[in-house]
Design brief:
four-stranded antiparallel sheet; alpha+beta; about 290 residues; disordered N terminus; extended; about 15% strand; 3 domains; Chitinase A, domain 3
């Protein structure tokens, strides 16, 4: 019995010691732990060089949060129907997201052969990549009136257009841009590919309008080894997306789903419609490669 008591006493001491090393502060008897702090650091995406300075600020925020939570519970705020509904919604989202995350984390990385196949099938993005180098004026679309349109028809240079806008007190932003044709909408890429040096284009973007002067179209290929990491990540993301959608489709097919209001039930056409797919994520990622 004595040996048992000594053994239990030793375990209790270690438990207290372990708890003490994990606890950073205590607020009215409620511990704030290193795990809570590390989670907040991760969520805030604090760079390593700034973490030491951020730890003190985050710890104070955790203390403030604990004080407010304790006061709120005493005031029975947590029993408010709206708060209870928000808690349940957050809980549901967290559990569902955790399940999907566990599912997609098991998806295998793309093989080298898959990466090479994607590279070969998209020469416009990689091996035959072309860059359009342009000068631009960005103007409020409300300023694109008939007078400006007439100037654009006869202008020989972007400077001529800029001078006219200066004289007419029209504000604009000026710059130079270099874009891969693969990043652009197909109709615009087609127009620019065949454009001559010095040709002017007007591109409407809703509330803003771009006045573009073509400088040049040049070859800017990207080697397989350079593009491989981004291709691999893109394909992995696509596989994970497909896995998540396939699991949802499976769960729906196995479930008994009943709509109280039949107007909420999707039609056969809506159910058969496929979501549009695009390489835009890959193309924008590749735009940063030189």
């Amino acid at each position: 019995m004595l040996i048992t008591m000594i053994g239990l006493g030793g375990c209790g001491s270690k438990d207290k010691e372990g708890k003490a090393t994990q606890s950073l502060a205590s607020v009215n008897g409620k511990d704030i732990t290193i795990h809570q702090l590390n989670e907040e650091l991760t969520r805030a995406n604090v760079p390593p060089a700034q973490q030491e300075a951020a730890k003190k600020q985050i710890l104070q925020s955790l203390i403030d949060r604990q004080l407010l939570e304790t006061k709120a519970i005493k005031a029975k705020v947590d029993r408010d129907p709206n708060v209870m509904q928000a808690i349940e919604r957050a809980k549901s989202q967290i559990i569902a997201q955790a399940y999907i995350q566990s599912l997609v984390s098991a998806v295998a990385k793309p093989t080298r052969a898959e990466v090479e196949d994607y590279y070969q099938k998209h020469p416009e993005t990689f091996s035959e990549r072309k860059l359009a180098e342009m000068k631009q004026l960005l103007v409020d679309s409300r300023q694109v009136n008939d007078a400006l349109k007439e100037v654009l028809k006869s202008a020989k240079s972007l400077d001529e257009v800029a001078n006219w806008m200066d004289a007419n007190n029209i504000q604009y932003d000026r710059g130079e841009i270099s874009r891969s044709l693969a990043e652009m909408p197909a109709d615009l890429a087609s127009r620019l590919r065949d454009a001559r040096k010095g040709q002017l284009f007007v591109i409407s973007m809703g509330s803003r309008t771009m006045l573009i002067l073509m400088e040049s179209i040049k070859n800017s290929p990207i080697a397989l080894d350079t593009a491989a990491p981004q291709i691999e990540q893109y394909l992995l993301n696509q596989k994970r997306k497909d896995a998540g959608e396939a699991e949802l489709a499976r769960l729906r097919s196995e479930a008994k789903i009943e709509y109280i209001n039949q107007d909420d039930k999707p039609s056969e056409i809506e159910k058969s419609q496929e979501k549009p797919t695009s390489n835009s994520d890959m193309e924008h990622g590749v735009s940063g490669l030189k």
